Amino acid sequence: MNLGNCHNFYDFRELAKRKLPSPIFHYIDGAADDEITYKRNTSAFDDVDLVPNVLRGVENIDLSTTIFGKKIDLPLYCAPTALQRLFHYDGERAVGKAAQKFNTMFGVSALSTVSVEEIASLIDTPKMFQFYFHKDRGLNDAVMERVKAAKFDVMALTVDTITGGNRERDLRTGFTSPPKLTLSSLFSFAVKPMWGINYLTKGKFELPHLQDHVSEGTSTAVSIGNYFSNMLDQSMNWKDAEKLCSQWGGHFALKGVMSVEDAKRALDIGCTGIMVSNHGGRQLDGSRSPFDQLAAIVDAVGDKMDVICEGGIQRGTHVLKALSLGAKACSGGRLYLYALAGAGQAGVERALNQYRAEIERDMKLMGCTKISDLNRNNLRFRKK
Amino acid sequence: MNLKDCHNFEDFKKLAKKKLPSPIFHYIDGGSDDEVTLNRNTEAFNDYDLIPNVLNDVSNIDMSTTVLGEKIDFPLFPSATAMHRLYHHEGERASARAVEKMGTIFGTSTMGTVSIEEIGQINKGPKSFQLYIHKDRGLTDNLLERCKKAGFTSLCLTVDTVVAGNRERDRRTGFTTPPKLTLANIIHMTEKGSSIDKSVIDYINEQFDPAMNWKDAEYCVKKWNGPFALKGVMSVEDAKKAIDIGCTAVIVSNHGGRQLDGSRAPFDQLAEIVDAVGDKIEVILDGGVRRGTHVLKALSLGAKACSFGKGYLFALAAGGQKGVEKILANMKTEINRDMKLMGCRTLKELNRSKIIHRRN
Known about the structure:
Mean pLDDT of chain B: 93
Number of domains of chain B: 1
Largest sheet of chain B: 8 strands, parallel
Number of domains of chain A: 1
Strand order of the largest sheet of chain B: 4-11-10-9-8-7-6-5
Mean pLDDT of chain A: 96
Low-confidence stretches of chain A: none
Largest interface: A-B, 41 and 33 residues
Order of helices and strands of chain B: HHHEEEEHEHEHEHHHHEHEHEHEHE
CATH architecture of chain A: Alpha-Beta Barrel
Shape of chain B: globular
CATH superfamily of chain B: Aldolase class I
Largest sheet of chain A: 8 strands, parallel, barrel
CATH class of chain A: Alpha Beta
CATH architecture of chain B: Alpha-Beta Barrel
Helix content of chain B: 40-55%
Radius of gyration of chain A: 20 Å
Strand content of chain B: 5-15%
Helix content of chain A: 40-55%
Distance between the termini of chain B: 43 Å
Distance between the termini of chain A: 39 Å
Number of helices of chain A: 15
Number of strands of chain B: 12
Order of helices and strands of chain A: HHHEEEEHEHEHEHHHHHEHEHEHEHE
CATH class of chain B: Alpha Beta
Oligomer: heterodimer
Radius of gyration of chain B: 19 Å
Strand content of chain A: 5-15%
């Protein structure tokens, strides 16, 4: 199997599985508890049917949309995710450059392995930074200043990781950052020697936004669940979020909002958008899927802020369904991470190209020429 | 595989399966008929979604609640189950110690293998005695008096075992309680109890009184004169009658899917019962609980607490006292984590606004 055989989400997943040491693959692939929410994130789309219109002259399709004041050419973007250089030695460099080629938003995590300064020098397309509210207030201020200086377009505060989710696959594989070789994980790394060679030779593993402040994640190996539980501030509240919002002074989003009530409060504190997300099913298993909750949130705040549907997207039609309900755009992590692990920048480009082709094809089949043509008349909820 | 590899229900079950003779494992694991209700008991939780709130300062979480007159550290307790010495040589001694340590209610069964008096010595925390009404009514009075003396804090009358369920796994494995096992609570009272080389099914059918009615239950409530639960109530009508005869709590349960297959799952029935009686009587959900989120879902619908059987029995088989401590600690950790992720600081904050049925 190689990149040329990858036609969809599952193909990229398969390729990633072959390339990555199993603890790292399962870190991407896994979710919380019994992974019920993770599965529902995608299966939710299957409870809704698209109803196409015909004979509408669909030779020219415009997929562009504007989120957080920035025009992007694709209503789907790369959500910020952590630790990308563990998946491919180019890490965020590869994903950033691929996102730039498609002129879509690139999200950079606080736990990224390439610095915001370097990302800013590499790409000039829209950029989002994802912020974790640490106990260490000096760290919080320093990160905020660096991202501002690097002229990122959007700041997204993650609010659904107040403590680490119960990722049992990580408990079993012993996954940590940085990776720690144990007697039981030795074999899984030894059978993927290319990964090991690249990890050791293509530049030191770093978390450039955090390592000057905390050793956890770089010189002290921790699981991501423990990082959240021990390093982030569990007393974080709406006042803190409001302060960060005004400290940033630009487009500001809350990532991980699931209730209508919280969506309204996000508006009150000055947010210009929210990501309806359950962190890819990696935090609270048994919680609602973003697509199931989307309509209620759009109805409440959709005319006043950008509502992004994040999680479970594996097909172009999923994007169309979310946009028809009123999402401004969609985002995802695994949808490009497997491709990154499989083939670096070329992999991410191939994945994004396929999503763009699918969305364009599906728009034509729906009889829609621009994103604003999609609305709830296109959808029927199938009664069970 | 050992205890430290046990992260969830399935892990404990796997380890128990390795340790137990297969008839005993299947006695715990099995349900009745086609086990449709057994499976539904857990699946039912998946038709409901939790909706978290964010940015709510969750640095301090209080999971404590008061059930059956006793304050417990977290809203989950092991249901009373029979014959612990089948699963581990320390039997109820192991489970009673573990539960006291974890700060919740310990339940012991009429069919226990360690006496009421010894449990009273071992476990100084909240204790519930689970009563089966035998044909021999003198036995009931005797048991209640002994429980009072031994410091039991509540009584629980099981009402869903008037006859034994059709546990086909037991028929196939030929499960019987071994001849040397002693049912310590009833040894002096019935010949059948002391050397029961027979199936539990036969014991239930021979000894339990199928004529048991509301008057008998009311008699027990009065005789006990303390916190009292009816276990195995599934209809709204019966829940209301439980209030009338003076019960403190109803335990919504189908006996872990071991009695009437095809009957409703406790979680599916919970909202209806809470709506009818939840302000007048404690409603406890029993059955299918495998995860902290299951407890949160039940509490969001209005249950006061949850109880579970199979999980801690597998843990008992897997590791004795340490096993039971570990599964209770796991569940407590999960409930704590899930409360934080829900943005809830106290159990009171869990309500219907936090949960939604998916096929509305």
